[in-house]
Amino acid sequence: MLWDFRQAIFDEGRPSPSPRVVELRSRHYVRKPQLDTLRERLAELRQQIEHEALSSEARALAPQPADHGFINLPAQLLEQAERHPRDNLLVRIQHSAAILRELADRIVILGIGGSYLGARALTEALLSTYHNELAVEARRSIPRCYFEGNGLDNDTLADLLALLQPPQGMARSRQERTALVVVSKSGTTLETAAAFRILWRHWQQWHPRELAARLVLVVTETQPRSRLYQVAQALGLPQEAIFPMPDDVGGRFSVFTPAGLVPAAILGLDISQLLRGAADMTRHFWEHPVEQNLPLQFAALNHLFFASLGKPIRVLSVWSKKLEGLGLWYDQLVSESLGKNETGPTPITAVQTRDLHSRGQQHQEGARDRIIHNVIVERPGHSPIPLGQLDGNTDGLDPIAGKTVPELLQAAWQGTNLAYAEDARPTTDLVLPQLDEYTLGQLMQMLMLSTVIEGRLLGVNPYGQPGVEAYKRNMRWLLALE
């Protein structure tokens, strides 16, 4: 993954279209000395986090919760798989995923927030955009995928039940059967718990008794205090159908736990490569000097734009529709990690070039209150599609008839960046060579690591979400659940 932050850092020697733009850049871009002053603090924070991640004593003294478990987890899982190739968590996940793929042609993933956004980001990025519409052969027998339990919408749930109901009332073949993956660390999140209760009732009606429990996998804390764990045991789910959520990993940091790995494996993604990308990014984070360290530099830049330049809006501008789910996942990561103590940036996802025709006007000429981070994919997953010829050239596009869609997209990205630079609108570029499990693992781990560092720079604990608990508590009180 390549990165270029030059259009967010003021450089007096850089060519500029006018003195006005030089003056604007001097006020609205970060200056190199500002980054330099953070170098020692960044190195200190990295060392502090490494100490806390490796030492339970140091972690106990850190602000609580101190859920650093996600940082070294990808490397730990890969190491376990290498040491015990026949008996490890990845083998368990892949074995259960293979069984579900054999049994069912559809899968419903129940979860909300971090319990589903990571899986959604992976599936949208790495499966066919129209995966659910493809014939079973074109999908290589990978199940169709649906997400629920992420809201309390009666009509969307009713639509899903109508879609999944077998024609004869009882599922008689793989094509008519649906598997269920339930993800909830505590098991007390009402949206997911309610959806599971409703769907389980239908599961028992739609599937033979001996199959119903085999079509369900659960990801939760494997401890008696987890309500979902209690439910799974009461319903007679076998122990091998229950996967552990680590105690020291919070929901929005859980994409490399079974919360993300179980759905990814069922949907045919290479979870080892996903973990390898994340582990390599963590190694980069630990080993590279501060000035060459992507998570540290990304954190520093974001912190300075928010805390020093007073720019509260952070736009993740993804130049592929397949990355919209990633943007929504990052929205939650930033909002819940940094939005505390009456401070923190506001994240926005923009999908380009679509949103150039909605938000583009504001980005170009609106308030100077934002930093725009472009995420670009260099190579498409399919052969480039040429524009081609049209009889009579009535659309006037013959001069570019030899161009391909990726070339048009590159011109749009470069033209947009140039327009922003000409008016001193700061941008950065994160460039992925292609969309695959390895690059997504790298990018998502980088964003999580930088968010933790940014929280420490801002003086807030990047873990925990006490504000979210307030609505849950009030909702349960109104429903007389407590």
Structure description:
The protein folds into two domains: 2-64 and 276-458, Rossmann fold (3-Layer(aba) Sandwich); 69-269, Glucose-6-phosphate isomerase like protein, domain 1 (Rossmann fold, 3-Layer(aba) Sandwich), CATH 3.40.50. Helix 7 (117-126) packs antiparallel against helix 15 (324-338) and helix 13 (271-287) packs across helix 18. With 482 residues, the protein is of the alpha/beta class. The protein contains 19 helices and twelve strands. The chain has helices at 19-28, 32-37, 39-54, 56-61, 69-83, 89-103, 117-126, 154-164, 190-206, 209-212, 227-234, 258-266, 271-287, 294-308, 324-338, 360-365, 405-422, 437-458, 466-478; strands at 2-4, 9-10, 30-31, 106-110, 144-148, 178-183, 216-220, 242-244, 313-318, 346-351, 370-377, 427-432. Belongs to the GPI family. One of its GO terms (molecular function) is carbohydrate derivative binding. Its EC number is 5.3.1.9. It catalyses: alpha-D-glucose 6-phosphate = beta-D-fructose 6-phosphate.
